[in-house]
Specification:
30% of the residues lie in helices and 28% in strands. It has 214 residues and is of the alpha/beta class. It is found in: Nucleus.
Length: 214
Amino acid sequence: MLCSDGTKKLSFGGSIKDGDLVIVYEKRDVMKAVKVSPTPELWTLVLSHRTQILYIADISFLITYLEIVPGSLVLESGTGSGSLTTSLARAVAPTGHVYTFDFHQQRAASAREDFQSTGVDSLVTVGVRDIQGEGFPDEYSGLADSVFLDLPQPWLAVPSAGKMLKQDGTLCSFSPCIEQVQRTCEALKSNFRGLLRVRGDIGQAREALCRTAQ
């Protein structure tokens, strides 16, 4: 929308919702109409940054190596700003579910509101829990297809994560520091066997492991 009076600013206090028609100006004299749909890619670009977030390039990598498909049950810690969670929800739809946990109560509440506004709340359950200290709830023991950890001390959550996974489930820990990766790998050696891969690039390291019978 443009204001006919160049000396005034256009004030818009509403919100753009799914299905709204938005006029996008590509150039000075070129415009097109776009029907808005809240995709995970768009949400990642506009969400409120309560924490540092993962972007689509890394998210695509993670979902591929976690082998998440429709119907999967996924455990995530921590929720943070919900960027990854939204993409996880799309990946498990329509019959799967994502159970995501954050130790910060207000952050978890804000994430619930975001998931409701983006229409993925039926696929995501947000819990308030210190996974590093308490581990994942026992009710998910042996049920998870995939577990994702994005924690300051992920090695503390490795034993619990191992108990949650199905026999052929996959665990991924995302860490920005090599020291975190080293300590997590030590914990993995004590709780897993069948190390598949450790990957890293430009200051970021990722591990993906497959749980096998001990």
